[in-house]
Amino acid sequence: MQETKFHTEEGEVFRGEKRMRLNMGPQHPSTHGVLQVILDLEGEVVVRCDPVPGYLHRGTEKLAEGKYYQQVIPLTDRLDYLSPFNNNLAYVFAVEKLLGIEDKIPDRGVWIRLILSELQRISSHLLWFGTHIMDIGAITPFLYAMRERELILDIFEMCCGARLTVSYARIGGLMGEPPPGFAEKVGEFVRVFPERHAEYMRLVTRNPIFMDRAVDVGVITPEDAIDMGLTGPSLRGSGVNYDIRKREPYLFYDQLDFDVPVGTKGDCYDRYLVRMEEMIQSCRLVEQALKKLPSSGPVKADDPKVMLPPKELVISQAEAMQRHFYQVIHGFPTPVGECYGKIEGSKGELGFYIISDGSSHPYRLKIRAPSFVNLQSLPLMTEGRMVSDVVTCIGTIDIVLGEVDR
Amino acid sequence: MFSSAQSLAFFDTAASANAKVNAPNEPFIWFLQTFITVFVIMNVVLVTMAYQTWAERKVIARMQFRYGPNRTGPMGLLQPIADAVKMLGKEFIVPKEADKYVFFVAPLVAFVPAVAAFAIVPWGDARDDGILGGWIRPVIANLDLGIIYILALSSVGVYGIVMAGYSSGNKYSMLGALRSAGQVVSYELTLGLSLMGVLIQAGSLNLNDIVVQQRATVWYFIPQFAGFVCYFISGIAETNRNPFDLPEAESELVAGFHLEYSGMSFGLFYLAEYINMNAIAVVAATLFFGGWAAPFPFLEFIPGPFWLFGKFAFFLFIYYWVRSTLPRFRYDQLMGLVWKIIFPIVLANLVITAIVKIIGIQAGWWA
């Protein structure tokens, strides 16, 4: 990692040696986007592995500095585009903390946030499941996983009209009330999912070839995992029981009953099992949350300084319309200060650090992207192993390049 | 091994055996008949292969909750034709780094042996005249050396892959070729040895004789079950199909040895892969599942080609099924499988078959 960050003229470096330098990516079917991995190979054995992120850099953090607080939400969709709602949520938490309105969110809004957040986690894990197994060579589980992911995307589409770039969370609540039939649809998913999940487990988990490929591959010890700052399933796979939902409960996680699966050996197979179990736990969470979800009530905080006035007032009252215009054109001011909002995203700890100078846009926004941090475990996992294991290990970290490069 | 005179004599006997059965007196008529037979059988093979790609896509699509091709013609039946037209219309790009002659020859080396394997497969009893009074015979060449011919051809096929990988001047292709060289050479060994049990049991290398024997006694997949399973696994590995598709592992080596090929030169590799698959399936059907023979005597009114085709389709289905189910091996695991598991099994199978046959002959119950 500390040597050259560029790939030199091919062959120049190792001419006359037994090594071969292979630029895997940025256009490669299983680097999950545009990750480049520079591999030095001796035969099939990886001597050195150097991940090179940056091909999808869009300057999200800088862009955010020129936008009002509420305008940053759509940017966050594009970070980890497999779990956009969780990104929205992490950002919104940070701003709500800054404004000091995190306790003003109505219960119904919080429960819906929790339900959608867990559904998003399931959908992200489903896509990870499909692509990880496809990297290992089995093509069918991907389409099985897509089938269930589609149900979740339908729920999001129902709520906000978008399937991927949802932008559904707002500072102080949600964009709007989910339509009637929301609870039934989520209930339907919760009913169907466990048996579909059992199907995946039957198909893949005890498959001897899959076990050969995953067991004892890419071992990360708990010490290494903590040293490198891994979070999420990558950390828990190594046997460290750390989950923000348990340690520092946000939303209403403290009112719900769920388990945090933890691995023992820290290999790819453990991380696989952890993620698979997390899906079931998320499903349990959604099921419980559905029971506690109030059937009616507001989903937005009652805070006129931050929230846009209701639409019916905007079209009937002059003051409301002025307030609406003012907020859209000038944003809302924030107290001077710094704050950090974080959630347990599907890939790990997703945090937004905001420095505010009192104006209506962030002075500086720093995104703690779990994929980026987790990616640094790749050389540790792959050096000394074979090319096929590199692909397995990239899959097992569950990176999304939109988040790695931001 | 053989001196040239000996080996020539060998071929003479093979040819005379063939001639004894089939050849009419006039050489020209004999030539014409052979030509027509070749034409018909090769067209059947190639059309089968084209529609096999369609069938594979349909079957796998059904296993994956998809429709598969359904835009081109009814049920997508024109898809293979559309694919062929597309491939023929594309440019044949030779990379700057490529070794041009080797690069050009490699797809042919892969393709020709694959097709040639079908020359000796009997589609009916080779001792019959065939249909139209001998104008279309059930087999192109009723070689007495049958199995050795097949093994020889499958060994040649691997050169195509190695040449392609070497000449492309691409690192992924190179890795694919290296993997392929190791893999195919190892699995060829078990492929050959797993057939030896059948040879011992039948006492012949001639495919038609083996089928006739099976019809008289029992299909060999029952006594030779271990051999059959090992043969089929080795066959999947030999044809680089999932879960042994390491030389072209899409998620690791992008496309492996045929990464740099485009247009019809890619098409030839694609064809070769599928025809090799067909060859493995058809040999499995012939040697272990009674070839053109009907399972029960009362079903013999259905002609031999239909039986062979049915059995062959069954094996292809297993190919598709395996492909859509299993993940891929890693290179060291692949080698471990062949040398530590399959190789001892086929050796044991060979020795046990030989011992049983000797005892049987001594005791007099071996027919």
Describe the model:
The complex is a heterodimer of chains A (406) and B (367). By secondary structure, chain A is mainly α. Chain A contains 17 helices and eight strands. Chain A has helices at residues 60-65, 73-77, 84-99, 107-136, 140-160, 182-205, 208-214, 222-227, 233-237, 244-247, 268-292, 311-314, 318-330, 370-375, 378-382, 387-397, 401-405, and strands at 20-24, 36-42, 45-52, 169-170, 173-174, 337-344, 349-356, 364-368. Chain A has a three-stranded antiparallel beta sheet with strand order 1-2-3. In chain A, strands 6-7-8 form a three-stranded antiparallel beta sheet. The longest helix of chain A is centred in the first third of the chain and has 30 residues, at 107-136. In chain A, 49% of the residues are buried. Chain B is mainly α. Helices cover 67% and strands 0% of the residues of chain B. Chain B contains twelve helices and no strands. The radius of gyration of chain B is 21 Å and the shape is globular. The two termini of chain B are 31 Å apart. The A-B interface holds A 20, 22, 28-30, 41, 43-44, 133-140, 143-144, 147, 203-204, 207, 209-210, 212-213, 386-391 and B 60, 63-66, 171-172, 174-175, 178-179, 242-243, 245-246, 249-254, 323-333.
Keyword list:
heterodimer, A: 406 residues, mainly alpha, three-stranded antiparallel sheet, 17 helices, 48% helix, globular, disordered N terminus, B: 367 residues
How far from one another are the termini of chain B?
31 Å
Strand content of chain A: 5-15%
Global Rg of chain B: 21 Å
Main sheet record of chain B: none
How many beta-strand elements of chain B?
0
How much helix, percentage-wise, in residues of chain A? 40-55%
